[in-house]
């Protein structure tokens, strides 16, 4: 019996990110926090199930009190939803997909809040020819793109990867640097201009990672450490070489956690402290390691910036709803869908099935 609800050559495209609760309530925070601990912490240390629940509940209560006290509400899910709509509109205009006889259904998904990635993958397993998963973060690691891969394996087994393609290496694309630099320089306020021979500083913020585990060894999981520093070096070189650049120094600012071992030493606090000690009177901050603002960027990183003691500061938001970003990402997805379709056709032919016909279940 044919089990395809979508057209024979329709692909699912899933824009996935961590996900944070939109309504700050204990009821919504507890399942999210437990899922975070269960999914991410297990890559660092083995914990009993009761401890995972207790740690998740403690984390939820702490976040509830802190966010309520500071009147913070995460925009991450709303931004990802807008990004999904923007990419969807770009893909709907794709002549390349149309000429290849392909169509796509674009969906949003999250690791830690509904709709969950594993649920979307389960639905697409029988209703789409293939799925392209797009982790909405530029540098992958066991804690980012690796989460998507692990969820796919947990839900469906290794064989799913013949049908599911997880995009990676977005930080390597030259067009992303152009989009980032246009965004940074186009967002600067007048008081970030050099004054009296003094140039402002810039801190590029990214999620930190583990350098050594609790025993002092190199972590067994892929941390993305080398990629993080390579991404920063290229960004710094591009910014300094740009004729629009007003910055005298560009520093890396990692946002770290405390569990699991030794984390990246180049923290946002350290970067801002060095700028302050050097007598810099103005500093900007841009989260280049994120495509959408979330509690790590426009809450935690922003608080670090505001507490820096530097006289004039500016937080530059993530690219968020940038049309240039939508166009760039849609073109990458378009190429990925075409490539996956070729792979699927080859696999179906090898299995003795017609490549452009639905498969039976």
Structural descriptors:
single chain, 361 residues, alpha/beta, Rossmann fold, 2 domains, 4-stranded parallel β-sheet, 11 helices, 10 strands, 45% helix, globular, disordered N terminus
Walkthrough of the structure:
With 361 residues, this protein is of the alpha/beta class. It has two domains: 10-170 and 324-350, 3-Layer(aba) Sandwich (Rossmann fold); 189-315, Rossmann fold (3-Layer(aba) Sandwich). The protein contains eleven helices and ten strands. Strands 2-1-3-4 form a four-stranded parallel sheet, with helices on both faces. α10 links the parallel β9 (282-286) and β10. α1 (26-40) crosses α2 (49-69), α3 (76-92) crosses α11 (323-350) and α5 crosses α6 (145-156). The chain starts with 9 loop residues before the first strand and ends in an 11-residue tail after the last helix. The relative contact order is 0.16. Residues 1-7 have low confidence and may be disordered.
Summarize the structure.
The protein is α/β, with parallel strands linked by helices. It has helices at 26-40, 49-69, 76-92, 95-99, 117-127, 145-156, 174-187, 225-241, 268-277, 296-306, 323-350; strands at 10-17, 103-110, 130-135, 164-166, 201-207, 210-213, 249-255, 261-263, 282-286, 312-315. The strands form three sheets. The chain has a four-stranded parallel beta sheet with strand order 2-1-3-4, sandwiched between helices.
Instruction: Tell me the total number of β-strands.
Output: 10
- Annotated CATH architecture of the largest domain: 3-Layer(aba) Sandwich
The profile of the biggest β sheet is: 4 strands, parallel
Element string (H = helix, E = strand): EHHHHEHEHEHEEHEEHEHEH
Number of domains: 2
CATH structural fold name of the largest domain: Rossmann fold
Secondary structure class reads alpha/beta
Radius of gyration: 22 Å
In percent, how helical is the residue content?
40-55%
Shape type? globular
- Could you tell me the mean pLDDT? 87
Low-confidence stretches: 1-7
- Count of helical segments? 11
Q: How much beta, percentage-wise? A: 15-25%
Strand order of the largest sheet: 2-1-3-4
């Amino acid at each position: 019996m044919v089990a395809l609800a979508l057209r024979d050559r329709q692909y699912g495209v899933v824009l996935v990110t961590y996900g944070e609760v939109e309504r700050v309530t204990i009821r919504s925070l507890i399942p999210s926090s437990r899922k975070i601990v269960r999914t991410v912490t297990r890559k660092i240390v083995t914990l009993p199930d009761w401890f995972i629940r207790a740690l998740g509940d403690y984390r939820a209560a702490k976040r509830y009190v802190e966010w309520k006290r500071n009147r913070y509400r995460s925009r991450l899910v709303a931004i990802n939803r807008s990004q999904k709509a923007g990419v969807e509109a770009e893909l709907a205009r794709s002549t390349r997909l149309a000429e290849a006889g392909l169509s796509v259904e674009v969906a949003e998904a999250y690791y830690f809040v509904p709709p969950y990635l594993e649920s979307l993958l389960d639905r697409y397993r029988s209703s789409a020819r293939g799925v392209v998963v797009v982790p909405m973060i530029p540098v992958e690691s066991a804690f980012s793109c690796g989460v998507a891969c692990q969820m796919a394996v947990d839900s469906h087994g290794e064989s799913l990867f013949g049908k599911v393609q997880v995009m990676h290496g977005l930080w390597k694309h030259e067009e992303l640097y152009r989009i980032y630099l246009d965004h940074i320089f186009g967002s600067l306020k007048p008081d970030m201009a050099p004054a009296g021979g003094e140039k402002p500083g810039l801190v590029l913020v990214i999620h930190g990672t583990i350098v050594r585990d609790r025993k002092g060894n190199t972590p067994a999981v892929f941390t993305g450490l080398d990629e993080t520093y390579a991404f920063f070096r290229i960004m710094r070189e591009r910014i300094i070489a740009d004729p629009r650049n007003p910055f005298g120094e560009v520093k890396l600012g990692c946002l770290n956690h405390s569990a699991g071992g030794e984390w990246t030493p180049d923290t946002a606090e350290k970067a801002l402290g060095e700028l302050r000690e050097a007598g810099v009177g103005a500093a900007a901050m841009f989260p280049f390691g994120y495509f959408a603002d979330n509690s790590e960027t426009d809450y935690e990183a922003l608080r670090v910036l505001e507490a820096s003691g530097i006289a004039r500061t500016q937080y530059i938001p993530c690219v968020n709803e940038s049309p240039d970003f939508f166009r760039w990402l849609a073109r990458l997805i378009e190429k990925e869908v075409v490539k996956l379709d070729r792979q699927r056709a080859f696999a179906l032919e090898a299995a003795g099935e017609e490549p452009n016909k639905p498969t039976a279940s």
